[in-house]
Specification:
The chain has 606 residues and is an alpha+beta fold. It is 55% helix and 10% strand.
Length: 606
């Protein structure tokens, strides 16, 4: 019947969105070019600038440019991860930061066309040995000298050594963040442009760069600076200016607000790493499902062995993972589209949302990659080694992006502070009292006389997830409000810190509700022939979220204990049906089979 087949081309085009033909042609062109020459030689051929696809200032981008922003760099990463990781740092951190935080006065003094074409490459550094997450407390100094109108960049201690990312052996320039000091007063972290090598690739005197030996291809290094002098115009001064006599001005009244606005301009790098991590999960799903289709094990006595994917244990691991992959795709697509089109509330808030979303996505990708690897875990199986490499790549991106748990916590804290802003309260305890009143007035959508059919209705699923969202927010309210009572002798920092699990849970739940909404909206927009298949995936994703928090639903009276079996029955039914069309659903993800010929057999063999 029709529901058992998937129109792969139609669904793939829908997943790619606008300009899907150009994206597909670009991938095909990259694959064809890489078949003719080695990847590294191809990367170093600077005439092929289209394959580097530098990300220029948003106002200069056409709609097609925006659609293709990540396609080229991430397609090349499939072939040579570290080489194109360096290109990604150049495009999405160095060049993008320079264009978004610099001014015309600086651009006129720099070889901007060489940066855009890739003839000159740059590195980037914000974290230090002792401050890789809490970067506002970094130690590296940029002391302004009024007499010479120069900044003196200095590394005061070993713990202040910077982590330098990119093509650290060939970069001519680097953007680093350092504490701006005028007189004896620190103005907080600011970005500076430093020339670290001359035209002969010799390091500037006073700059010391040591590549990390444990990481091949020198994509990360430690860097220190000894009284390096740079001109006044090297400050990326979009949000801060210094007069010749050392008078500091900024459009932001606080250093915190200015620094948050600065970090918001780096959000494109979070979108890039999230996009790359998700592309790795898509490859892993493709490989593990294909492996499950052709690899045969076990069966009834005297009967042929069965494909792994026909076993329920395999289905229950892979198909929810497939549904999550689709869900993350639609969530990331929405976040990216809103950022590229400047439709997020403010750049400061956009930074928190994007960073938190990236952290959540990367954590889910790591879980999914491990599941896929477990499903292909056999000695000598090349797919297992391939999946291990995909997992390592995402781990590497996580290591240079920062602690996922911290950024998810920061998102949760930001959501609470938004409620404080809405209540116009100045004290956190006042905010929690107001929220407490709101909870008392909230009437949940209670489930009574449930059925499997009702549990498969998108609005029913959304109502359940909204109920979960409100309950988690209530839990955070109660926990922090209790910890702030005088008898506990906790200040606000201590209250937040001791409430970390509840805050993280609330942030994850709100992200999952957002992702499910986006999934629902895409189900309504997909061509009718693919709608039923996509709806089954959406339902499986939503039911999986509900099942994860079944204890919460039962304890709060949303379900009674016996009703959880209805959710399990609906999940089992969906998994059984989706297993019949799993090959088409994974093909629609757009993974290139040409790069996997040494890992999996051709379709004709099974």
């Amino acid at each position: 019947s029709d529901w058992m087949s998937v129109n792969v081309d139609v669904l793939r085009a829908f997943l790619d969105g606008r300009h899907w033909e150009e994206k597909n042609n670009l991938r095909r062109l990259i694959r064809r070019g890489l078949q003719k020459t080695e990847a590294r030689q191809y990367r170093n051929d600077r005439e092929h600038t289209y394959f580097r696809f530098p990300f220029v200032h948003l106002k200069d981008l056409t709609e097609l440019d925006k659609a293709l922003a990540f396609t080229s760099i991430n397609s090349l990463c499939t072939i040579d991860f570290f080489a194109n990781f360096r290109d990604g740092i150049h495009n999405y951190l160095f060049l993008s930061t320079l264009l978004h935080l610099g001014t015309d006065d600086l651009f006129q003094r720099l070889p901007m066309e060489d940066f855009k074409s890739g003839h000159l490459v740059g590195s980037f550094s914000i974290g230090e040995r002792a401050h890789s997450v809490n970067v506002s407390q970094m130690e590296t100094e940029a002391i302004y000298d009024c007499d010479t109108q120069q900044f003196i960049i200095n590394t005061p201690s070993e713990t202040a050594e910077k982590w330098l990312l990119g093509d650290v052996q060939h970069s001519s320039y680097a953007i680093i963040f350092a504490q701006l000091i005028i007189g004896s007063e620190s103005k907080g972290p600011h970005p500076f442009l430093i020339q670290i090598r001359d035209a002969s690739n010799n390091l500037t005197d006073g700059i010391f760069i040591s590549p990390i030996d444990t990481l091949k291809d020198n994509a990360i290094a430690s860097a220190s600076f000894s009284q390096i002098r740079i001109p006044k115009f090297a400050l990326l001064n979009k949000f801060a200016q210094i007069s010749d006599d050392g008078i500091y001005t900024s459009p932001f009244p606080s250093s915190r607000g200015r620094f948050q606005a600065t970090l918001a301009e780096l959000a494109i790098a979070d979108l890039w790493t999230a996009d790359y991590a998700l592309s790795n999960l898509k490859k892993a799903i493709f490989v593990s499902v294909r492996f499950g289709l052709y690899r045969r094990q076990f069966g009834s006595p005297g009967e042929p062995e069965l494909p792994l994917l026909s076993l329920s244990s395999h289905q229950y691991r892979l198909l929810p993972n497939l549904a999550t992959t689709y869900a993350l795709h639609f969530g990331l697509k929405a976040v990216t589209s809103r950022w590229l089109n400047n439709r997020l509330p403010t750049r400061g808030r956009a930074d928190k949302n994007i960073v938190g979303f990236r952290a959540y996505l990367n954590s889910k990708v790591m879980e999914g990659l491990q599941t896929c690897r477990d499903c292909c875990n056999e000695i000598g199986n090349p797919a297992n080694y391939f999946l291990s490499n995909l997992k390592f790549q995402v781990e590497f991106l996580n290591s240079v992006s920062g602690n996922n748990d911290f950024f998810i916590f920061q998102l949760g804290r930001h959501l609470i502070l938004e409620h404080m802003h809405k209540g116009r309260g100045t004290k956190m305890t006042d905010t929690f009292k107001r929220l407490k009143t709101t909870f008392a007035e909230y009437q949940p959508f209670l489930m009574r006389n449930p059925s499997k059919e009702k549990s498969l209705h998108p609005n029913w699923l959304l109502n359940a997830l909204l109920y979960r969202e409100w309950r988690c927010l209530e839990d955070v309210t109660n926990v922090i409000h209790f910890k702030l009572k005088d008898k506990n002798n906790l200040d606000e920092f201590q209250a937040w810190n001791s409430s970390l699990p509840a805050v993280q849970k609330m942030a994850k739940v709100q992200l999952e509700t957002f992702i499910f909404r986006e999934f629902m909206e895409n189900v309504s927009r997909v061509p009718s022939g693919s709608r039923f298949k996509l709806k089954m995936l959406c339902n499986l994703y939503g039911l999986g979220l509900i099942q994860e928090d079944m204890t919460l639903f039962i304890e709060r009276g949303y379900f009674i204990h016996s009703e959880k079996e209805i959710v399990q029955e609906a999940i089992s039914d969906l998994i059984s049906k989706l297993s019949e069309i799993s090959e088409g659903l994974t093909d629609a993800l757009g993974v290139s089979e040409a790069s996997l010929t040494s890992i999996l057999p051709s379709r004709s063999r099974f």
